[in-house]
Amino acid sequence: METAEFKQRMMPYAGQMYAVAFSILKKPSDAEDVVQDIFLKMWEKRHSMDSIANLKAYVLSSVRNKSLDMLAAGSRGNEGGVLECSDEGRAAEQVERKEAATRVLKLIAAMPEPQRTVISMHDVEGMGYDEISDLTGMSEGNLRTLLSRARKRIRDVFKR
To answer: Which residues cross the membrane (predicted)?
Structure first.
């Protein structure tokens, strides 16, 4: 596959790739890094791209997984970030919420693949069951079951 054909097949997904990465990482430079990494990996796999049944789903899943891995690895710190709160009580509450959100994302990153995919697409990216079903090929009932199990796993960890 030549460069022009690769660009023709991959560039339509660039905006969505960035949106998925940014929705997870909340940092433009990290989102750009993830998109660049996935483009590089896809370039290295360009000769086998024809064997991928749903390129869009494959690429967006790769971006999501890479973003969650980056988040779980702690690559995305709050470097020099300042909390903008009017009093210490609200600042502490905001820190607790941020820590809980980070903990949830790390739990999601550690989940088995089908659960991680479904909860990321539904709860993190805000996709509907029909869209997730189209991208993954799973039935809506299966998606609901996987989502329920993933949420239960998170609740169980927070109850401890």
So the answer is: none
Q: Which residue has the tokens 């989940």?
A: 111
| Overall residue count recorded for the chain in this entry | 160
| Residue 82 to residues 71, 85, 91, Cα–Cα distance (Å) | 19, 9, 10
Each residue's pLDDT expressed in tens, for the chain with a length of 160 residues: 688 888 888 898 888 888 888 888 888 888 899 999 999 999 998 888 888 888 888 899 899 889 888 887 764 344 444 444 455 667 777 777 777 777 887 888 888 888 888 888 888 777 889 888 888 889 999 999 999 999 898 888 888 7
> Percent helix, strand, coil in the chain (nearest 5)?
80, 0, 20
CA distance 143 to 139: 6
Which of the 8 DSSP states describes residue 145?
Answer: H
Task: List, in order of start, the domains of the chain with CATH numbers.
Answer: 1-77 (1.10.1740.10), 90-160 (1.10.10.10)
Which amino acid, residue 97?
R
